[in-house]
Structures are given as C-alpha cells and as structure tokens.
Specification:
By secondary structure, the chain is α/β, with parallel strands linked by helices. It contains eleven helices and eleven strands. A seven-stranded mixed beta sheet has the order 7-6-5-8-9-11-10, with helices on both faces. The chain has a two-stranded antiparallel sheet with strand order 1-2. Strands 3-4 form a two-stranded antiparallel sheet. The chain is globular, with a radius of gyration of 23 Å.
C-alpha cells in the first residue's frame, strides 16, 4: 500500500498526514521549518494559512507571535510537535481556529470560546464602541451621587459584548440573556476571567423574557441574522458554529421580529439600542425598528469593511 502524499495539492486522509509528520522517523525541526510545512497544509482549508499556523503554534508552545518571529531558529520538541499537528489536523477539517485553541480575541481581551457558542466577530466590536461612546457621554463629571447605567445584551453567547462593556465602563451594570445554558456558563466564566462578574448577571431564557420588568439605558443584540437557506455547511468554518446562533429564519429577521416589539417598554428615556445584522437585511431591520420606535433617531452604521452592519436607535430623540 502506498503511503499518504501530504503535499498541499493532494487531499489525502488527514490522519495519515499527521501520522507521517509525527512518525517514528521524527526529526527535530525549527519554529520556522514547522511553520513552513504547516502553512502548506493549511492552504488547503484556510484563506489565512500563515496566520492560522502562527496562532496554532503559539498556542501549542504557550508563546506569542512575537516570540515565534524572534525565535524562528529554535527547535521544537517532539511533544510540542505532536500537540501542534493535532491542532492543525482539527483546523484542516474546517473547524474555526477559535474552537481549536479554545480562546478568541475580542476588544483587546481573549475570551473562552467553545463550539457551543458563536465565535466573536471583529465587526461586533463596533457595537461596543458605540455603546461606550454613548455611556461616557452620559456621565456627569461633577455628580455627587454614584452613577450607574444599566445595559442589556440579548443573546449573550460568550459574553464578549457584555464583559467588554463592563470592563471598559466602570459605571455599568450589565445583564445578558440566552436560551443556551452552556452559553450562560461560558459568559459567566469570561466575566470572572476579566474580574467583572460582580457587575454582570446572565439569565437563561428567551430574548428579554427573564428581565422584562426592568428598564435599561442601553440594549444590544447580535441575534441570528443569516437567512436559513444561506447558512454555510462544514467544512466552511461557519458551518461548525451552532445553527441556533446563525439561523435568522427565511429572511434573516425572524428573531429580531420577535425582539423589537418587546423593547419599547424596557428602555429608559433617551436610551440607546444597537442591533447587528447582515448588510442585505439591514434595511428590513431598520424598517422594523421604525415601526416600534417611530419618534426615535434611527441610523444604519457601517463596519470595518464599510458594509452596513447595525442599526442604532436613539430613543426619545426626534428623527432628524
């Protein structure tokens, strides 16, 4: 029987390739050498093979990218090599790097991430930016009494939005909801990770159901917004993420259509609501927002790629 050809153009069984790499004929290799081989392999399954290889090797070695660059000629032990190629094997199936290594960066912090929750996206950082800008603008510098602002994150997932706001804005009390009990546990662990657990509380339940008797200064939601028939399947990395966190129904707005009617009675005067969606569904989301908040100032905001990404609703402000 012929051995596996693990060259980048040959899509052979992955386990065979990994066994070849860490077989009894193992020879010590440097950081630079092992990265070069991994990049060739990862090019079969990733649009960013170099970045992926660096992140996986850094995780396997317990180092950072700077160390990899400065120590390019350092040899990697067999145990470390085995650990690294096991990570590469998972990535070659299409599994997102975040799930492979169990952490992912968001707003300058590394959050615990598992396949039970959506991987935090860079574009979602815009929601945090705008929420913080609004909250900082509400602070009265000469106030005698302690000021506290209430924030609700609907569909909390990893807690990336909630924990980031709590960590960046000391005057906030943040709550979050999710229908996924495992997501609630992950969000709680992340809150402890960043020392904001005392100002974060997460509730298991549908949308706003667990907190409907409360009023908030800020409400944020990054709910499922991909139309059902457009959800990618594995090996596309998105296909590895929980469908419940992706599926927005036939038009991508089914969940928001249930959320928005609940919000008018849950926000304070001059509150801010921020809702993320896909560029192609953003106009529909804006129209749904206008139905529930006809007197609010409603804007469509763009992401890093200059794509329409989220709707901003400033309650109590006359439409300009």
């Amino acid at each position: 029987m012929k051995g596996h050809d693990c060259s980048p153009g040959k899509l052979q069984p992955l386990s065979g390739c990994i066994k070849r790499v860490i077989s009894s004929t193992y020879k010590p290799d440097t950081v630079q050498g092992i990265l070069a081989r991994a990049i060739l392999q990862l090019a079969r399954a990733s649009e960013s093979p170099r970045v992926d290889a660096q992140m996986l090797l850094a995780h396997a070695l317990g180092r950072d990218k700077t160390w990899l660059i400065s120590q390019a000629q350092t040899f990697v032990s067999k145990a470390q090599t085995e650990k690294f190629w096991a990570l590469v094997e998972k990535r070659l199936t299409g599994m997102p790097v975040a799930y492979v290594i169990g952490i992912w960066g968001f707003y300058g912090r590394e959050f615990e991430v598992t396949p039970d929750v959506l991987v935090p996206r860079p574009e979602t950082e815009h929601l945090v930016d705008h929420a913080l800008q609004y909250l900082n603008g509400r602070v009265k510098k000469n106030a005698v009494a302690k000021q506290l602002f209430t924030v609700l994150d609907v569909g909390v997932g990893t807690g990336a939005i909630a924990c980031s706001i709590a960590a960046e804005f000391a005057y906030s009390v943040v709550e979050g909801t999710d229908t996924n009990e495992k997501a609630i546990k992950i969000a709680e662990r992340n809150a402890r990770r960043f020392n904001v657990f005392g100002r974060c509380k997460f509730h298991l339940g549908d949308l706003t159901a667990p907190v409907e008797s409360k009023l908030y200064d800020v409400v944020l939601a990054n709910l499922p917004y991909i139309p059902s028939d457009e959800i990618p399947h594995a090996p596309n990395p998105v296909g590895h993420e929980p469908a419940s966190a992706l599926d927005g129904g036939p038009d991508g707005l089914s969940v928001y259509r249930r959320l928005l009617p609940r919000l008018p009675g849950m926000v304070k005067a001059d509150a801010l609501i921020l809702l993320e969606a896909a560029p192609r569904t953003i106009d529909g989301l804006r129209d749904l927002a206008a139905e529930q908040f006809p007197k609010a100032k409603i804007e469509v905001m763009r992401d890093y790629a200059d794509l329409d990404r989220f709707v901003s609703i400033r309650v109590g402000k006359a439409t300009g």
